[in-house]
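Pipeline run #58 for the internal structure catalog. This entry was flagged by the ingest filter as a single-chain record with no existing model, so it goes straight to prediction. Upstream metadata was stripped on purpose; only the residue string is passed forward. Reviewer on rotation: M.T. Logging verbosity set to normal.
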Amino acid sequence: MDVIQRNNVQQLLHSAQDAPVLLYAHGFGCNQEMWKSLTPAFSSSHRQVLFDYVGSGNSDVSAFDPERYCSLRGYAQDLIDVCDALALTREVIFVGHSVSCSIGILAAIQRPELFSRMILIGPSPCFLNDPPDYSGGFERADLEGLLALMDQNYIGWAQYFAPLVAGSELDQPLTSELSSSFCSTDPVMARLFAEVTFFSDMRDELQRCTTPCLILQHRRDALVPLTVGEYLHQQLCDSHLEVLDVTGHCAHMSHPNLVAVAMHAYL
């Protein structure tokens, strides 16, 4: 199957053929449209690549294989497939949000020569609490309840989860955009991606990643406590941690200017 079509790959090209490449990877329940406020900040300096994971956005949902996508490694293969389809072999700058940070780390471990740097926005290697040494933010019962709500009332789940991710019910445009994205995703595929997102544990993989990383942590994030960013910074061998003074889980949508400034400074 054609990967370009399967993953709805789009490119924002640059006049210079050797312009550095930014590859954007969206989070759970989202799609490549979530980057639209950030990409203009790099239009004059970078070639930009966007895509949708199979089962998200405008991807070819007929390519969804529950066995492949029951693990983050299936999504990491999507990422590598996109690079291969575009003949990207090195010096790619990866920009991932939320669970895509873990997916990008897996891809970088598998193909360390592919990425020169990684920008991780709101990353979490494990959403579950594991006392006494790790606080991921959720008890297992909390996440099981979230999945049960998805099963019982998918629209109700989307309306509950969107303001949690946005960080404020007062930010109605952002909440509405997230809710619409959640609601437009096939419930069966979204349910599987949610389970993989919230119950995966990447902690044992982190020290195998040798790619330099910028960790962009949200100061007030209902999904990812501040201690998670500090934990990642300790575990990733060549990382820089920057805490953005924002509320919510998606600063690239709510405060794209802050994310762009941090990215430009790091790059």
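catalog note: The CA atoms of residues 54 and 64 lie 6 Å apart.
catalog note: The chain has ten helices and seven strands.
status: ready for reviewer M.T.
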